[in-house]
Amino acid sequence: MICLSFDTDHLDGVRMQEFLAGVPIPGGGTFFCTQRYESLGEPHELCPHPLMAVAEDGGDDLSNSRSEFAGAVGWRSHSCVYSHMVAVRLAAAGYLYASTQYQPVAPARPFREAWGLWQMPIFYMDNADFSWSRFWADADHEPFASNIIDTALSDADGVYVFDFHPIHLLLNSVSADAYLERREAFLAGAPLGALRCRGRDARTFYDDLCAQMHAAGLRSLTMRQALAEWLQRE
C-alpha cells in the first residue's frame, strides 16, 4: 500500500488552490494541515500539523489543533516534534495514529506504541532526502533515487508512507539551499514560474512515483484507510 501525505507548511489558501490545480493526486491523500483550507476536502484525509512549542506534552498547540480538526484520527507535528507524553495526550484525545518517525527502511510497517497509539513511520520525506548532504557531506546519498520507488512498489504487504511538502512540489525544490533562496518570495506571493528550480527535483520524483503507481494499477490510500486495511490483514 502507498500513502501520499502532504505537510502544508507555508501554504495559504491561494497557494493551496495552486497546488490542487497543478499537482494531480492519484487517489486519496492525507493532508497534515497548518490551517483549514476551503478548497481541500474529499477524497482526502485532513489532520492537524501543529507547530509544537513545548515538546514534553504539547501544551496549547495540541489542544488548539484538536479543536480545529475535531474528527481527525491522525497527527503529525511540524518537524515531527514528538515525545512519549505527547503520545499519551494524543491517545487520550482520541487519535488513532501518529506519523512522526522518519524510517527510510523496508519493509515498512505500522507498529503499536506503548502509549496507546499506532505509529505509521514515514518511508520517504522530500526535505530529508534533499537535505542529506548538508549534514553528511561524506555520505553516498543520491536524492530522488528511483530505487526508493521500486522498493515501495515491490512490497505488497507493507504500508509505505511518502511525505511531501506542497511548497517543494510547487517550487520543484532541488536542494535545501535552492529552497531557502526562494522561500521568502514564495511567501510574498511571487509567480511560481519565476521561482521554480530546474533539474531533477522533488516534483520530478513525485511525478515518477505517480506514473509508476498508475502503471502498476495502484492508487494512493489515505493513511486512515491504509491502517484499517493493514489491521484487517493482521
Structural summary, described in words:
With 234 residues, the chain is α/β, with parallel strands linked by helices. It has one domain: Glycoside hydrolase/deacetylase (TIM Barrel), CATH 3.20.20. Helix content is 39%, strand content 14%. The chain has 9 helices and 9 strands. The mean pLDDT is 93.
| pLDDT < 50 runs, ≥5 residues | none
Which CATH architecture would you pick?
Alpha-Beta Barrel
Name of the CATH homologous superfamily: Glycoside hydrolase/deacetylase
Rough shape?
A: globular
Number of helices: 9
Main-sheet strand order equals: 3-2-1-9-8
At the first level of CATH, what is the class?
A: Alpha Beta
Q: What is the helix fraction of residues, given as a range?
A: 25-40%
**How many structural domains does the protein architecture include?**
1
Give the terminus-to-terminus CA distance. Answer: 14 Å
Give the DSSP E fraction (strand runs of 2 or more residues). 5-15%
Radius of gyration: 17 Å
Labels describing this entry:
single chain; 234 residues; alpha/beta; TIM Barrel; 5-stranded parallel sheet; 9 helices; 9 strands; 39% helix
